[in-house]
Structures are given as C-alpha cells and as structure tokens.
Amino acid sequence: MKDSDITIKLMNYMFMSMSNTMNQVPFSGQHWMEQLVIGSVQYFIDEYWDDSKLDSKKPVEICRTYLNVMEDVGFLYAKDYRLEESGDSLLMSVKTNKCVYRECCQRTGEKEGLSFKNCIRLGTFQAILRHVLGENNYLTSVDMAADGFCYGKLRPNTQPKEEIVTREGHIIKMAGHRAFLLRQKTYASLMASIRDHAPQILKHVLYDAGYQSGLSLARKARESYPYPKECLQLLLDELTNLGVGKLELVSFSLSCARVKIRCYDSFWADTANEYGHLYRTPQVICDMLRGILAACLSVIFEKEIICEEMVCQSMGADCCEFLALPLPQESSGGRKPHDPRNE
Amino acid sequence: MNTIPTGINGFDKLVYGGIVRRNSVLIEGVPGAGKTTFGIEFVYRGITEFDEPGVIVTCEELPESLYRDALNFGWDLHALEEANKLRILCTSPEVLNDPEVNIIEEVVREVGAKRILVDSVSHFRNVFSDPILLRRAVYGFCNGLRRLGLTSFLVKERESDGQRDYAFEEYVVDAVIRLENKETPGLHRLRVLEICKTRGQEHIPGKHTFRITNTGIKVFAFEAIAVNSEIKEKDNLVNTGVPGLDDLLRGGLPQGASVAVAGGSGTGKTVLSLQYLIKGAVDYGDKGIFLSFEETPQQLLANAKHFNWDLNTLQQQDLIKVLYLSLSEMEIDETIIRLGEQVKAFGARRLVLDSIYAFLSRIDNIAVLHEKIYFLVSLLNKLNCTTLLISPAWEVESGGKLEVIHSVVQGTILLKSMMIQNRRVRQLEIYKMRGVNHAMGNHLLEINALGIQAFPRLGG
Amino acid sequence: MHRAYFGVEGLDRNLEQGLSYGSQIMVEGDSGVGKTVLAGEFIKEGLRCGDTCVYVACDEPPTVMREHLLSFKVGTPAYEETGRLVFIDAYEEDGSTEKYVLSDLRHLEKYFTLESEVLRSCNGPRVRLVVDSLSTLLTNLEITDVIDFHRTRLKQLKKTGILAMDIFVSGVLEPRLITITSHLYNFILKMSFNGSRCNPVRQMQIGKVKSQQFTSSTHAFTVSPIYGILVAADTGVHK
Predict the structure, then answer these.
(1) Up-side HSE of residue B12: CA atoms within 13 Å toward CB?
(2) Chain C partners of B458 at a C-beta cutoff of 8 Å?
(3) Do B186 and B322 sit in the same domain of this protein?
(4) Do C227 and A200 touch (CB under 8 A)?
(5) Which residues contact C202 (CB under 8 A, 6 or more apart)?
(6) B240 and B125 housed in the same domain
(7) Is residue A165 part of a domain?
(8) For position B99, which CATH number holds?
(9) Is the ipTM of this complex over 0.90?
(10) Which of C9, C18, C70 is closest, CB to CB, to A331?
(11) What is the pLDDT at residue A338?
C-alpha cells in the first residue's frame, strides 16, 4: 500500500476527527478513543481472524499473528514492527514513517493542548488481545522518539478505569458508582448554608471531605503506579479531569517528601469569585483540595503529610499554590489528623 | 620669594618649602643634639639633589672623623670633593676673621659653591672677648658669606639646657634653629627641633620631633591642617557595625570624626573596636587600620577568633592592617606622621588606636598634649578616616590629660561595668558626639558569641 | 484597607469593621481559660489571610504552639519554611534550638531589640504578633521601666503597622500597672472563669474597642479540641 493512497488518508482524517472530538469529552476522552479503535478492529477480526491459526496464546504470539494477518490482506508489512516480551508487558517499536497512522499522530500532536496519547496500533493489539484472551485489559503508552522510532508498551491492568462516567438509563455512574451532577451555584449555596448554621465546622468539613475522597482516589492509583512521582502525576491529571482545576506539579522531592503544586482556576476559588466569599476577610479557600492533596501525598509517601494552601486565586493571585511537607516527628500532643494507614 | 629647599626630610615643610636664599641660619644646641649632622646634610643634599656645590668649614673636628661620620649615613664626601662639588676647610676662627686672608672666597670660587656650613661659630667667642667686637665680627662674616651668594648654616654650641638667653648671634643671623635632646616622662629622650626665628618668611612654630636615621635626619613636621569638619554634610555617617549603637547615634559616626572610647579594663573597648573594623571591612568594604601599642597582633588575632572573625584573611585580602608599635619604641610625632602616611597609602576609612594612653604617658605638658592630639584628630579628619581612640576609664586621675583628649575629639563613648542586683552588667553611654542628636543615658551592652551589641534603653 | 479578625466567629461578630493593622490587642485572662487557644486561632486566621505571624513563647516552649496549630490542621512546617510563621523562644533561654531565642529575660531592651529585629525581617505586607504572655516578661521589673518599654514598643508597633496581641495572665502584674498599660491598647478582651466552683463557666468580655462602637456584653464560651473557641450564640450571659 502506498502512503498516498486516499483510503489511508481518509482513515487518518477520521481518526484525527475522533481524537479532536474525544478531547472535548469530559473525564476521559482517552478511554472512549480506545473504545472506538477497539470497536473498529472488532469488525476486522470478525471477518478475517481465525483463532485456529494461533500457535500459542502468548500475547506476543497473538500480536505477531495479528500483524501477519494484516500483511496477508495487504495493509502493512509485519517485519516493520518489532515485538518483544518484557515481563508481563509487551514492547513494540516501529519506524515512525513506516506506520500508516503516523499522519494522524503527528498532526494531532502538533496541535497544542491535544496530546495524542493513544497509539492506534497499540489499540488494535489491545483489541485482538481482548478478543483472544477475554476480559484481560491492557494499558498502553507510547513515545514518539526523536530517533525516528515510536516506542510503545502494553501492560496488563487489573484495575477498572476510574474516571469514566457512564449512563445506564436514568442512572449516572462514575467509575461504577452512582453519581449526580451539581452546579457551582448549588454548591455555593450549600456552603453558605453550612457557614450560616455552623461556621466553626466549615473548614473542617471541607478538609475532611477532601481528605477522605483523596484517600480512596490515591489508594487505587497507588496499586497501578508504584513510582511516587508517576503516581502523583497521574492523580493530578485525574483530578484535573474531574474538574477541580488545572493542577501542575511545580516541585517534587522524594527524600524530603516535599511537594509544591499549583492549581489554576480552582473550582473553589472560582466559586468564591463568582458567588461570594465565605469568610469575612479574603483568605485561602480551597480547603477541600488541600485535604485531597494531603491524602494523596500521605498515601504516596507512606507517612503523614500536611498540605497548606499558601496563596489562593480567590485572593487575587494567578493561581493557588500548595506546599506539602511531612508532619514534624516530635508531634505528640493534640488531635492528630487522619492517619492514612488506619483507614 | 627665592627659597631653596634644604633637602632635609620633613624640615622644608616647617618653612613652607625652603629657606630664603643667601640667608644665614644658626643651628644651636647642646653637644650631641645633631647640629653637625644637620649642617652636613644641608650641604650634602644641596650637592646631590639640587646641584648646588658646597663648602664645609670646620674648626673642631679633624676631617677624617667628619668623613667617617658622614659615611655612616651613606654620604661619600671624598667622592664629592673629587668631583669638585665640595670643599672641606679645616681652619681656626682667627683665620676666618682675618680680612687679609680670604680663604673662604677662594674655595667658594673653586667649586662655585652655593651652600656653606660653618662648624662652629662658637669659637668666635674665643677670639673676641668684647661683645661689641664679637657682634661686629659675626655680622661682617655673615655679610661676607651673603656677598658670595652663599646660603649658610652656622653651628653654635649651647652650654646648658637652662634659661634661654638671647645671644647676639640670634639678632645677627636671619634664622635660628634650636635642637634639643629632651628628657620626657617615661625615661625617654626625645630629639626636638624648634625654629625660633626666620627673617623674611613664615615658619611653623613649636617644637618638632626629629630622628637621626641611618640615611640622615627625619623631621616629623606637623603641617597646618585646614579643619573643615564643621561644614561636613550630615549624611555622611559611618556605620559602626555594632548592633544597636548606630540606632543610638541616629545612624552612625560622622565621617572623619575621631571618637574616644573610654572605659576601664574588661568593659569591651577592644572588642568594640575590632568589631568596628571587621564589620566595616566585611559589610561595608571599608579598609581599616588597627594601631596597637598594647596587644600584639597575635593577641588581637586570638581575640578576634573568639568571635569567629577571621582577621588573618582580612589582612591577606588587604582590608585590614594591624600595626604594632611597642610603647618603648614609639615616638609620638613620628607615630602620628607615619600613621597619616599609612592611612593615606592604604586608603583606610577606619582606624583604631589602642590606646591613647601611650600619648598620655609621654607628655606631661597639657598644652603640648592638646597640640598633639589636636593635630592627630585634624589629620585624620582631613584624611576622612573615622577613628576610635581607645582611652582609659573616664574616672582615672590623669591630671587633666583625659579632659584634654575628650575636649579635642569629636565624640566620646563611655563603656562601663557595674553591679546591678548582684549581677555585673556592661553599659554604654554616648557622652558626647558633635553634631549628632544622640540618645542620652546608659544603655545595656553585651558581649556574646557574635560580638558586642548595644541595646538601646527604652523610653528615651 | 485590610481588616483583621480573630478567626473566632462569636467574637468577630462583635467587630463589624474588624481591626486595622497597627492596632494592639490586650488579652487578659485567668490561667487556663483559653488565652493560648485564642492566640492559636488568631495565628491560624492570619496565616489563612496571607499574613506573616510572629509568636513569642514565654510560658511554654514554641513547640507547644506548633502542636496546637497542627491539631487545628495548620501545617506549621510549610509556613515556617516560607518565613510566614516565626517563633521567638523566650522560654528555654540557653538550651533552645530555635532560630530566635531571648537568652536573657532581665532586660526589656534585649527583648525589644530581638522583637524589632524579627519584625524587620518579616517581608510580608501584613504582620501579626502574639506575645504569650507579655506579663511573664514584665514581672520583677521596675514599674517605670515597664511603662517606658510599653510606650516605646507600642508606638513602634503602631508606626510599623503590626497587628499585635499581647497576652496578660491575670494576677501576675500589679493592678496599677495593668490599669496604666491598658490605656495604651486599642482593643481589650478579658477572659475569665465564672459561675460556681463545681460548674465553672468560661466568659469573655470586650472591654474596649477604640474608635468603634461596641457592646460591652459578656459571652460564654467553651474550648473544643476540634473547633477551638466556641462562643455561645448571641444570647450573651449578662452578669
């Protein structure tokens, strides 16, 4: 097949359009993009695949066989792709300009804000692996390297995806749990109501609620991402996806357990600016996010971390800034904040 | 006015550049005062530095001892004679006064002399017993020299150190320089020079110290200094580097001021002064000099080390210079002049003098002490070098000497140590600071690991 | 114009316009009534508002206040690291490991110098200062010295726009001194135990608010380990 083949071009256009659209979908567009690829591959499998051709059910063999099938129909050359096993994971490399999907990847990659994280080729492997091996899910990651090669990785995922919002009839679920959508205005009136009736508990309610939700979020992430920094980055991305604001990791020290995080357009700061401040004087207001981050970091560092909001966008700053440090060792008196290990 | 420099180190400053050409200068003094050396140097410098050949007339010494003594200063008179720049006449007063034998005129013509030393005219007394005749003879002799175009130094013995008797010579000659070898308090002998008269020109009055060094005479001349401290800009304040003290001073010490830091032993004078120099160097880049007559540099270094001040490095970086003069070796005028030269050469902005007691112990005469201190303070003021003069405790009985010091300096800081509620407490008082509206009263002073710190008393 | 509050709802409610920076607050109260808790609230509120807070610990080591703040979920390390929270140890003297230590309680000028130095080094726009308790520093000193100290210090604090809270433990100082001293403050809060001996009730009373209308009512309050000082609702317990 030639690259100039109009069908290839059209196929790339379609994927580009899908990718653009999926970036506008709240929560995880990435997940839906994967679903689209897997769905289209399924049609190919139904027509061309024959399980009996497989010599073994090793993932690497399944993928090789799949490539051969694709070569047989004249879509690609199987030898362009190098596949190897690395523990439970599969490593794939291909010269970027040999890949039929490169136009889609390169052009979406150029557009700012739309980072194309899905490798369609890896998506097709996900599809065939799922077809042959059943429910077994794989996570994909890819890097379009400067040496002209794409390096991809497929690794098994035991966790269900967390950020997905689904609707079954009138029931909306988030990561499999029931949810409902709340407008900012409603949230603001809820908070104002708490303040009016029990002003002394407001900060505590927000912090504790944040801490609890942060704990469950972080524990799940921790299982799939054992490396602290990677795990934190994933959590920040996930929280950004959830709409708390755009979270950015400013500095990270593993040895000191010291982390600085910025949040642009924090939901709480925006609520204060939009529907009025909760307190008499301008002050930091994102106690819930502070709680979430403290919980996340306590799980990641496996010790008690306390997080302070040093500057808040509701006070006129460009963003909110959080500084997290471990609790002092000598701390003994007073009521301790939640210990993540006891939950 | 046509004057000629003598070429004697420091002397020409006293006569504003030189003595009037063709004048006769009488040098008088007790034996051993340095008269002959003074005269020979006049002639020698004339030949070697100003190309003015000279003649030495001696009625006393044998030429050999003259040559030998001159050679001790590195002056090779033989060579000058061979070069036809110098003639040495060994003769008697009788010959000199014989109008028929004009021996001087001959030798003067031979070398084209411009300068002459006559050693000594005292011998004229031996020839003329009648004072009128003597006076006429000397007068005629001097006129003769003047006619020959000679600038002359005439040496005259002085029999005693006693009552000053105005001898006839002093009326006849144009200028009189008196040399003395004085006893001072503290068993010290001091060479002193005084210009008693100069006809037709100004000179700096008073007694000036001089020293006979191995290269000749060095006069420590106190030049007149135009004092301009009163019209200094108020803004030029020097930070003391002592926390709290600058607040008490409303910013710092007036630049160029000399301030006495007075207190008994153990009140923190040396620490305060060291800190003043060290913080000045480290925090403000000011160069400083510590002139010590008491503690040796090693002691000071060790003292500074207590506070983690690296005096050694600061010396290597050329920011601080520690000078040490043992009390027995120092001469006051010399010290002051040399100090001025050092301050200028080093570019010192700060100076500590430890201690002014060295001056007190040497000078009994209050007027003289006043003059010396005044000169020192004016000199440092002119050099814009802000100075701390460490001084004995205010209460010490000094016969009015301390009062003299405190009246001359621009400021006085008193350091005290007293018992309050059974605890010894250091205190600081700014007793005076000219032109500064400083805080009054006693303030807590503390020496800790970081140095010395004042705590301004609350409530004013 | 920035206004400051204590961060204690029932108390702030009585301060419609809040306090201006440069005001001095005198808190006088019985031992154990909750003055330090109030100080903690005041500091917490300050930190939240972006102020730099200086706490002078005279009666206990600074760590006690650190732990107290931590129990209210204020992470002191972050604020100390960024210079927003500064402790002066006026308790331990020689053995202290704090950055700022008052090594000698006998000379008020030393305290004043240290306090001024610390306040000068605060680079935030607004500064709160709490001295807990100032009465400890003033014991056993000449009354004239103490008054001189007060005048100079409070004048300076006013000039530099510091919001200061000085805590006085009841009964430590002579009543005459307290009377003279109280004239120098903008805001006076008295905290005391009342009620019967077996059923003591904590009460606070605003004694003075300079240049503001105020009701000198007495409020009962409790000290909660979670929420800090809780002032009883507006009903106000009148004597």
Answers:
(1) 14
(2) 108-109, 112, 145, 148-149, 151-153
(3) no
(4) yes
(5) C33, C34, C191, C192, C193, C194, C220, C221, C222, C223
(6) no
(7) no
(8) 3.40.50.300
(9) no
(10) C70
(11) 46
